[in-house]
# Entry
Amino acid sequence: METSSDYGAYVDKFLLSPPTSSPHAALPLNSLTFAVKDIFDIEGYVAGFGNPDWARTHPVATSTAPTVLALLRAGATCVGKTVMDEMAYSINGENIHYGTPRNPCAADRVPGGSSSGSAVAVGALLVDFSIGTDTGGSVRVPASYCGIFGFRPSHGIISTSGVIPMAQSFDTVGWFARDPTILSRVGRVLLRMPELVPVKPSSIIIAEDCFQLSSIPYDLVNRVVIKAVEKLYGGNVLKHEILGEYVKANVPSLNHFLTQENTDQLYNIPSLAALSSAMRLLQRFEFKNNHAEWVSEVKPDLGPGISERVADALKTTGEGIDICHSIKGELRDALTALLGDLGVLVIPTVPGPPPKLQTNASELEIFRARAFSLLSIVGVSGFCQVNIPLKMYNNLPLSISLVAGHGADGFLLQLVESLSGKIKEEEITQSKA
# Structure
């Protein structure tokens, strides 16, 4: 239940202090507090996976997930576990069992999921940072909706041991912070990179067609972000790309998913819609392999939207799964060729501001379809992505994302630190103009 002070972010509050053996002042996360999504094992607690039936039918964890241990050993203090969408199967952030955490930027809007409580805890100033997981968008979306930084690392680079799997081809451990310095400090611990050396990007590529999927005026983002890049790195690093065309030309296996439905929708990029279809199919298939037995046996009480998605997943066959894996390889190669070692892609994180609470299902589905077209770029390639909050627009949070190649996580963190400061300066200049 929400208390007036915690925004409904927590499912359980407790205190886990850093081990006493280390001199705390020397530790990289000394004196910082954090919260953990209810999908991670913490010794002595049940990882509840957003659903009371799951919590009831699973044992107390006998060890703590390595990611959580690493943060504690680095000097941070854990203050509790956060609410999440059931079985991590939503990007909305609404939970009928534990309540929907309240979006600190816009109380009448969804907070985004599935790492809803983790994002809200950071956005509402309850903790310095938090951790979540991102399979289809579960860190990037709530970060955008709650107006904070959210980092999804390269797939496979941070251990998911002690984390309930959703779909292993996409599962990552990500984190949230309000400022880029703390985002970077946490990243250095989780990525085991004590030092990040500033490096100039070779290219910053604006995916122009992707911004047409967004309801936020492109020139608004354009003015601030492009000016910040020009001032920091010079105009010659800026490039423009029609990403949908590039993906279509370089990912031949996508033809299998280029259906009439994907090409007919209004405000749609057919190749990215096809990418999203492939991602969602493989996600359903892996979810079924992980959880079908439990769902069939327990028949859990699942909320609207979740129950339908779980039912669809349970019907999935192995048809087309090999093609999904081919697409993953082809997309990674294609985007690696586009970005090189030090290139960055600029895209909208989501198609617009957070939807209103209890938005009707059909309206939400259009938004979700566009969102997954954007989210699947990194989901399928396994690249790293960071959500950067911009100033509020019409009293709603506005953000962009930067995407870098697989394994370029340290470079991306360093870039965010440099660029977000300059973006803030531009926003102040714009608002005075």
